[in-house]
Amino acid sequence: MTSVAVGVFNIVFVLLAAPLFDGVMRQVKARIHSRRGPSILQTYFDLGKLMVKEDQLAVNNFIFSVTPIICLGSVLLAALFVPMGGVVPLGFAGDTLVLVYVLTMGPICLCLGGMASGSPYAYLGVNREIMMLMVVEPVMAISLIASAIKAHSLMLADCIRQPLTGAPSFSLAICAVAFFLALQSVMAKVPFDLPEAEQEIMEGPLIEYSGRKLAMLKWSFYCKQIVLLTLFMEWFVPWPAVGSLPLRIVLTLVKVLVGAVLVEVIAQVFPRLKIAQSMRYFVSVIAVALTGLMLAVMGL
């Protein structure tokens, strides 16, 4: 019953609080630029404005039309696998691998939707997205699998419990660093927001979307930020795991907020990289993740 309650909470919280977290990140960006910035509720207003606008479809294509629904649905499905307060709502043997597949589903569908639009800017954005997926997704997968090896289980519940019950692990620390370095890209933040790059290719795969479909795509991005940050905090930084379940959930949300602020600070400090620079960077990060995996296999 607890897992069901946490699962409902995860979906409702991710869906409703994601724009608020984005509003906080926009405030951080404004303060770094010495501006007052918009209200932290501005993202809600932006989404609401898009939701009441009429969809101006560039093409009458099934893939183009269903992409926003699949992107948002896949993120909410991933929220059912993400532990909150140490409780995994949807846990079964091999759910770590399922989580990796579900997190990859959204970007792949976005690429299909962008290609279906027929826009040259969308094609360029999709090309960049695929190139980034090829080097970023392995980092996340290797980091999670290395943790599963340490826990001797592919169940999420066992993986998040291992750092709390086992001795400090060299391999987990290295995998945590690799996973965090990949966060900036999977959250579509500078310096790795190359597939969207508003100043260059006008949001790439999103360029032909408008109205409710654009709102759903943006909402899925905001939700994915919370899902990934929560996954990182609960998987690699589970401390302090004390008190009742509500207290542990509050502590997790505080850590997620701190992580969101840190990600936004990094986004404002570094300039956007070129695609070749990003590829070289993530090849190095893959090497870091593989080092953590080899140490995990060795039991370190």
Please give the radius of gyration in angstroms.
19 Å
> What is the distance, rounded to the nearest whole angstrom, between the alpha carbons of the first and last residues?
36 Å
Total separate domains: 1
Outline: globular
Report the uncertain regions. Answer: none
**Major β-sheet, in short?**
none
Strand content: under 5%
Please count the helical segments.
Answer: 11
Mean pLDDT: 87
Going by helix content, strand content and strand pairing, the class is: mainly alpha
Provide the helix percentage.
over 70%
**Topology as a string of helices (H) and strands (E):** HHHHHHHHHHH
Count of extended strands = 0
Explain what you see.
This protein is an all-alpha fold. Helix content is 73%, strand content 0%. The protein has helices spanning 2-32, 42-51, 62-79, 95-117, 120-151, 156-165, 170-186, 198-201, 211-236, 245-269, 275-297. Helix 1 (2-32) crosses helix 9 and helix 2 runs antiparallel to helix 9. The relative contact order is 0.17. The mean pLDDT is 87.
Topology:
Layout: H1 2-32, H2 42-51, H3 62-79, H4 95-117, H5 120-151, H6 156-165, H7 170-186, H8 198-201, H9 211-236, H10 245-269, H11 275-297
Helix pairs in contact: 1-2, 1-9, 1-10, 2-9, 3-4, 3-9, 4-5, 5-6, 5-7, 5-11, 7-9, 7-11, 9-10
Descriptive keywords:
300 residues, 73% helix, mainly alpha, 11 helices
Short description:
With 300 residues, this protein is mostly helical.
